[in-house]
Design goal:
This protein is α/β, with parallel strands linked by helices. The protein has 11 helices and 21 strands.
Length: 413
């Protein structure tokens, strides 16, 4: 049994590079005009640079073209498909059968992957897409572990991929109309307003008392009845690895470099350790690492069948967590880091730098740091200066472990 490919999201060129630095085998990304990520910052030039960067390192890039087309999309789609011949990605992720056929006609040698949006939940559907020429099917999040095994056995000659981590949509594999109905922002165009995360109150109106409303609340917190916890299969990743899937996918093209780094390093280490010694593998260290990400609470989703009440967070929809993304390494001098801040930093704070060369974080107490623009000493730098760089003096023995794009976190008391 070979190791599954570790596939990370990349919403920008820096996140693509971060994913690879922290252990991803491949990334998926796309232009906002033809994918389900309206807020993606990728340009065609970024994609060209990112694909070249990946191929120089023996990595892969898959382009998401999983839009559901309207007639108005066809001219833009045609332009993008023409560009595929120049970009030479390693595959393209599609959901619309028309797009699938169109790309097959225009780029017959380009592997086509079937998106989770296509709701592939049975061997029958996998076989259908295989017969159409698909190279890979992404299984729907609704597929339990037992059915994954069955599909793998019944479909041995096509690659299979499954989500192992990330946000869960309340609707069927993300095909949601709530956002579009309530805000005019289409979830199926990548511009979801996350209406399922909002706090709802329900009122009853009795027929003979029009205009008199009785409030119906679930509890004192309101009714977050559609708010799913985030998917995390790490506690039982060994069982998922035993299925023999070809790719493990992590959700989150709108997430930060910190999210990409933590998720990549945790799943990279977990996969490698399992294949080195499956008999002694335990998930505890990797689960603890993933807990440093802001999350809505974790769930195994549909791994054991229908998800129960424990898969939803009925109390609150906001993400929680005791760690924050502190910043990332912009560059180095011979004796200092140039560090771009993403959170307020004060003298005496302890930052944890996540070296791509080791799993154990490197703790660093901020006893001195300077404004990178004028080298003025600082006692604090507020969140109002996010994106500003500071200089942190460090010995060479530490600097060599913290290359450009290394991320750091700060614990919030």
């Amino acid at each position: 049994m070979k190791k599954p490919e570790l596939l990370l999201p990349a919403g920008s060129l820096d996140r693509l590079k971060t994913a690879f630095m922290y252990g991803a085998d491949a990334v998926y990304c796309g232009l906002p005009s033809v994918s389900l990520r309206a807020k993606s910052t990728f340009t065609m030039a970024d994609l060209k640079e990112g694909i070249l960067y990946a191929h120089e390192r023996g990595k892969k890039v898959y382009l998401t073209m999983n839009l559901f087309t309207h007639n108005s999309d066809i001219p833009r789609l045609t332009e993008c498909v023409q560009m595929l011949k120049l970009l030479k990605p390693d595959g393209v992720i599609v959901a619309d059968p028309g797009v699938f056929a169109f790309i097959g006609q225009m780029c017959p040698d380009l592997p086509r992957h079937i998106s989770t949006q296509a709701n592939v939940c049975s061997a029958l559907t996998v076989q259908y897409w295989q017969n159409q020429g698909a190279a890979l099917c992404v299984l729907g999040r609704e597929v339990p572990l037992a059915e994954m095994r069955e599909i793998r056995k019944m479909c041995p000659d096509i690659k299979l991929e499954a989500f192992v981590h990330g946000a869960m949509c309340v609707s069927y594999s993300g095909r949601c109309l709530l956002s579009n109905f309530m805000t005019g922002r289409s979830a199926n165009k990548g511009n979801c307003a996350h209406s399922c995360r909002w706090k709802y109150k329900v009122y009853l109106e009795e027929e003979q008392r029009p205009g008199q409303f009785m409030e119906l609340e679930e509890d004192a917190h309101g009714t977050y009845i559609m708010n799913s916890r985030d998917l995390c299969l790490m506690p039982r990743l060994n069982e998922v690895m035993d299925v023999g899937l070809d790719s493990f996918k992590i959700e989150g093209r709108n997430k930060s470099e910190y999210y990409v780094a933590v998720a990549a390093r945790a799943y990279r280490k977990a996969i490698d350790d399992y294949f080195d010694n499956p008999h002694t593998w335990t998930p505890d260290a990797y689960v603890a690492e993933l807990a440093t990400l802001q999350n809505r609470g974790y769930t195994l989703g549909f791994l054991d069948g229908n998800a129960g009440p424990e898969s939803h967070n009925y109390d609150i929809s906001a993400s929680s967590g005791s760690w924050r993304y502190a910043g990332l390494v912009q560059s180095q001098t011979k004796d200092s880091l140039i560090f771009e801040i993403k959170h307020k930093i004060e003298k005496g704070d302890v930052l944890e730098f996540l070296s791509p060369d080791q799993f154990e974080p490197i703790s660093w107490t901020m006893t001195e740091f300077y404004d990178a623009r004028n080298d003025a000493p600082l006692e604090t730098i507020s969140s109002g200066h996010l994106g500003q760089a500071i200089r942190i003096p460090m010995p060479a023995t530490v600097l060599e472990k913290l290359p450009v794009l290394t991320v750091a976190r700060k614990k919030i008391v």
